[in-house]
Amino acid sequence: MKQKWLWGTVAVAAVAAITYAYLNHDGQKSVNINAVGSTALQPMIEAAGEEYQRETPGVFVNVQGGGSGTGLAQVQSGAVDLGNADMFAEEKAGIKAKQLVDHWVAVVGISPIVNKQAGIKNLTSQQLNAIFTKQVTNWQQVGGKNLPIVLVNRVAGSGTRATFERYGLNGSTSADGQEQDSSGTARSIVASTPGAISYVAFSYLDDDVVTVPTLNDVKPLNANVISGAYPIWSYEHVYTKGKPSADVQKFLDYLQSNKIQKTVVPRLGYISIHDMQVQRNVAGQISKVK
Amino acid sequence: MDEIREALTKTSAATKKDRFGRILSMSALALIIFVVISIFWFVASKGLATFFTNKVNFWDFLTGSKWAPGQLDKAGHPYVGAAPMIVGSFLVTLISALIATPFAIGTAVFMTEISPKRGAKILQPVTELLVGIPSVVYGFIGLTVVVPVMRQLFGGSGFGILAGSFVLFVMILPTVTSMTVDTLRAVPKHYRESALALGATRWQMIYKVILRSATPGILTAIVFGMARAFGEALAVQMVVGNAALMPHNLTSPAATLTSVLTQGIGNTVMGSLENNALWSLALILLLMSLVFNLVIRAIGKKGAM
């Protein structure tokens, strides 16, 4: 008897839960905005999405990672509303960029990081290129200590790697070496492996565990990205398929609003698009913002 | 009279319950078969697209040693050589199984033959505890402890097949141990009694009788552990170095099928060559786990006599 009673309760509870969910779904007429893509951009969209939900009841912003490629592919196929990417859609093979509309929501700077034992303070662009194409294999050759260079790349196809190769290595492809798919792991590997070099977004820079060399004597600082003095940076893109619906447009406006750009964006280590004094197009040409 | 006849020919409550139970279990079975078939169909259709849609030579795929699906060589063919990953996967699997086997057999013998009481009280929960630790924790310990030790001992960066094997050895140890314990426990008691009665020492009894008669079971346990090691992704990915290069020694960075797969899948576009090539790797993994299963069955059959 006791068991029957138990099963009965479970069954009733399950039916009640499903009915409730169904009725709720029907009655609320809620708006769901789904965003998928770049893990580098994920924290910002999540934080902004939470605030947006609080301000506009009935709107739900669902954010998932998965990588820039996934974001672009999913938004192109129409499966999600927003596709987050670290790169221009034109740079990704297999994406019909003409169908997508680009929205810039932030800028992120990328800097090389070097293991402390290498004894490096500054690298020139030529040196950086030589290191990552394996023309130089010992830190001695670029003014450091006698220590072999260990390359720690990001995964092929990742937005950070694409940006670094394009603007840090002047378009050269990095030589084969270790690959890691997250900024955190890349940093801890560089910190613990003698002679290692990798590259991470500014928000992952930490002078205590790794050396952050200047590039052509320019410090990797937000201010230098803003003024155009520091070259390795990229836009954080949010793509929509065609013109977005009114609800999605509102959220995009919110992402680009002063409120988010002044609070969430700097807090999470990105650079606000409003601050930028230079702009860059798909071809990589830099021009002044009027 | 009619009432009695009716009562006798009517389906009884027990039969109804019986039928209900059969329908329930049959539909569960059908669902599982459907899921398995659709997984195979999905992975195969995606994985074979590399060869049929993108016209990659199957032999080049298996034996090529450069993996960069986004780039083209001089002849215009993409670099999709999976050999480094296949070799890497097999090496970490074999080496971890080689290290794990003596430890697992030793622990199991201690738990069943030498000190069953203490074994049940202390070792059993300890080995079971190892199963519950998430693989990312193993990976992190590997990254902060195993890799630096490897670097100290063998030089280089410390990342490589040896570090991966070490992490995997700890991860498969509980699986192999608990399965070996089960087989040793299943050896009939009269085997032990007869051996001792014939004048064998305890060591002779363990070595010549119990381990011998449990060999098929132990082999199954090892293959099971290897199947686990072959499919493990996260922990290995953190310590193996993920360089899709032919491993020229055990402490140079290498890659496994799973590590390339997990890192790459988020950065490729569905339907592109890069994506299809990754699915081909997944197909190899799926076929390999099928092979492991068949091997386990074959060993089990042989053991059953």
Automatic annotation (TrEMBL), chain A:
Pfam families: PBP_like_2 (PF12849). Residues 30-258 form the PBP domain. One of its GO terms (biological process) is phosphate ion transport. GO terms for molecular function: phosphate ion binding. Gene3D superfamilies: Periplasmic binding protein-like II (3.40.190.10). The keyword Transcription regulation does not apply. It is a lipid-anchor. GO terms for cellular component: plasma membrane. InterPro entries: PBP_domain, Phos-bd, Phosphate_ABC_transporter. Transmembrane segments: none annotated. Its main location: membrane. The complex is composed of two ATP-binding proteins (PstB), two transmembrane proteins (PstC and PstA) and a solute-binding protein (PstS). Part of the ABC transporter complex PstSACB involved in phosphate import. Belongs to the PstS family. This is Phosphate-binding protein. The gene is pstS.
TrEMBL record, chain B:
GO terms for cellular component: plasma membrane. This is Phosphate transport system permease protein. Pfam families: BPD_transp_1. It comes from the Bacteria. It comes from Weissella diestrammenae. It is a multi-pass membrane protein. Keywords: Cell membrane, Membrane, Phosphate transport, Transmembrane, Transmembrane helix, Transport. PROSITE patterns: ABC_TM1 (PS50928). The gene is pstC. InterPro entries: MetI-like, MetI-like_sf, Phosphate_PstC, Phosphate_Transport_Permease. The chain crosses the membrane at residues 20-44, 86-110, 122-147, 153-176, 209-230, 277-296. It is found in: Cell membrane. PANTHER family: ABC TRANSPORTER PERMEASE PROTEIN YQGH-RELATED, PHOSPHATE TRANSPORT SYSTEM PERMEASE PROTEIN PST. The keyword Zinc does not apply. Belongs to the binding-protein-dependent transport system permease family. CysTW subfamily. Residues 86-296 form the ABC transmembrane type-1 domain. Signal peptide: none annotated. GO terms for molecular function: phosphate transmembrane transporter activity. Part of the binding-protein-dependent transport system for phosphate; probably responsible for the translocation of the substrate across the membrane. GO terms for biological process: phosphate ion transport. The keyword Transferase does not apply.
